[in-house]
Amino acid sequence: MSSHKLRPINWPSGIKALVFDIEAMSFKFNPGMGEILCVAFQSPKWKEPRAVSYDDFEGYRDYHIQDRDFLLCQWMAEHFQDVETFIAHYGHGFDRPFITARMMYHGLGPFVQSIDEDTHRLAKRNFNPGKRGWGEGLPCSLRNLCEFLGVEHQKTGMSKLEWRQLMTNDYPDVMRDCAEYCKQDVRATLDVFNILKTLPGTRINWSLAESGKIGIVCPNCGSDNVQRRGTRTTTVSEYRRYKCMQPKCGKWSRGTKNVWAINPKDDDILVGV
Ligand SMILES: [Zn+2]
Fold first, then answer.
1. Which of 118, 168, 222, 247 could connect to 206 by a Cys-Cys bridge, CB 3.0–4.6 Å?
2. What confidence tens digit (pLDDT) does each residue in 88-117 have?
């Protein structure tokens, strides 16, 4: 496998949360088979997403069509192994099971067992918890959510012609376009998540996710713009209580260090009140 070189990609260590999206194709003539064409991903700390497609690996053409995403899957298994939280739109319904299937097919074992955020699940839970899903005109798809919430980056998508061209393997430009679409979906997902994350149902604790940071950080948005507001007393202890002062957040939280034991300059891990 050493002959399959990938162009160098800067991969910082300690990435805990990653927004991601895959473009993938399944073969109708062979049910259950498919391939991941590319993956785009962005740490919420990065300004721009990055993308890797199977086209980035020298030698992928040596593989049979059903196997040519092997190098990409192997790359994901290696590079994403420390990630604690993946943020994706409908990730629990599409991206994760698709990746899991491909990983198992290639004998790479299950995908990272993380605690994921899903903008589709968050939107559905908070905007339309009814059993039947979205009513007419209500946003559920990423495209609709982007429009509804008025975010900066809107979802784009490939045309049917471009998808057909991708199948034939003869249009390298289309693969680059595919990666660009994928990156744009990541930008849109991050924009949407940054709004929806203040709603109930999110799982990530930014106070922990950003624990490399000095100080006290809002568990909801990761901002250090938090103020102390009294205390929170439980049956066993008393903690400092905080309010996030970021305009779009405002979340209340409490520390996890006992008020009698904490020094004024100590860091504290905040959790929901
Ligand atoms: Zn906050």
1. 222
2. 999 999 999 999 999 999 999 989 988 899
pLDDT in tens, 18-36: 999 999 988 766 655 788 9
Using the mean position of ligand 1's atoms as its centre, give its distance from the Cα of residue 225 in Å. 8
The CB density around residue 244, as the number of other CB atoms within 10 Å, is 25
CA of 273 to the centre of ligand 1 (A): 13
Q: What are phi and psi of 243, to 5 degrees?
A: -130, 135
User: What's the predicted TM-score (pTM) here?
Assistant: 0.78
Residue 236: partners with Cβ closer than 8 Å, 6 or more residues away:
none
CA 147–ligand 1 middle distance (angstroms): 24
DSSP string, 161-218: HHHHHHHHT--HHHHHHHHHHHHHHHHHHHHHHHHHTTSTT----HHHHTTTSSS---
The DSSP letter of residue 111 is P
Confirm if 155 and 180 have CB atoms less than 8 A apart.
no
CA 63 to chain CA centroid, Å, is: 29
Alpha-carbon gap, residue 147 to 234, rounded angstroms: 42
C-alpha distances (whole Å) from 172 to each of 24, 169, 177, 192 are 16, 7, 9, 31
Helix ranges (DSSP H) in 29-152: 70-79, 96-105, 119-127, 142-149
How far apart are the CA of 233 and the centre of ligand 1, in A? 21
User: What number of other Cβ atoms are within 10 A of residue 173's Cβ?
Assistant: 9
State the distance from the centre of ligand 1 to the C-alpha of 209, rounded, in angstroms: 13
- Distance from Cα 263 to the centre of ligand 1, integer Å: 23
> Ligand 1 centroid to 109 CA: how many Å?
37
